[in-house]
Design goal:
Blueprint lengths: L22 H5 L4 H32 L9 H6 L1 H21 L8 E4 L19 E7 H23 L5 E4 L5 E4 L5 E7 L6 E3 L2 H12 L6 H29 L8 H19 L12 E3 L4 H9 L8 H9 L12 H6 L6 H12 L2
Parallel strand pairs: 2-5
Antiparallel strand pairs: 1-2, 3-4, 4-5, 6-7
Amino acid sequence: MSHEDPNQPPAIEAAAPKKGESAFESSHSPTPEDVARSAALEERRQRSQADDQAAIGKVRAELGLTDDQPAASEDWKYGPEAIRQEIQHKVGMIRDWGRKSGLREGHDFQVIESIRQVAPEGDTIQPHEDKQFFVGVQEEQYGKFRDYILGEYARDRQAETGGRAPSLYYSWGGRFAVGGDGASFFDTVGMADAEQGVVKSRHDEFKQFFQDWTGHEFPSAERLNPLLKGIAEKSLPTYEQMLGRLQQLKGSKDFPDQGWHAIEQLQHDINILKSSLGDQPALTELPEEIRGAMPSGMRDYADLTYNAKSMDGLGIAAKITGINLPADQRLDRIFETLYGFDSQKTEGLCREFSERVYP
């Protein structure tokens, strides 16, 4: 597959709206359904903002900051205030793309600014998930959206960040995430029905694709759950020791930027391992059709399998702390443990699959 030249802007066919009008209003009269959808979107945004403010207040209290004190530069760079500002800016860019493309939010595409808007009650939110937002685009428009990200969006973000161009990270269902151009990132997905929040996972199709390419079965949740439990029973204290050491070092002047990623990754790993010791299975297999939000067990399953290349914090943590785990006890080496297959190759297979789904 060849993408459009990223140095050339994608064609925009929709006419610009008149002053004071949105692209939707310039060609459509709002129906009662549109009004109700807009109200629901606004309610979700307000709930998300309230959750964000609560998270910011918690962090500021932990730092001992009063209302009139700014956070220190390190806390600003990695804290929720800066991340939320960056997310809101990126969301604005995507909504502008939707309007210019003549697409209607809530009908042709969806933007979820925080996982806390849609996560099931009592769901575990992993540390990295508070740094992301979500964009769902009707399948027929998903290829054009990818071209926008690789073209106009990438050029604009590179100009804004002084050279940090975004990268695409491929995952299940032919979908991709966008990151590398700041502290936040966003997940995207092609939707069978953007209005109803219906997504085809194409999980069975990818499992066959994986087996054809590698000669191995794609790891199932049924196979991984007892493996996780065994790792937790043997090595959870070592994971916690590594995290504690990183927490001690993070305030030092020589603490590397990658160390922050390692801290988040270890927190994620520890949460997964602790859940494997509970009464319910830690991981849940992806169904062929996903409606609404994915529960944490399903998201963790995707992270350990489809997103294995991104689960690289343990190696960084080992270099910083000097604490090592046997290869068969590392959550970032599950493919190696099961098959001797390099987990770094999983994203390449996901990209190849995506290019077949969205040529």
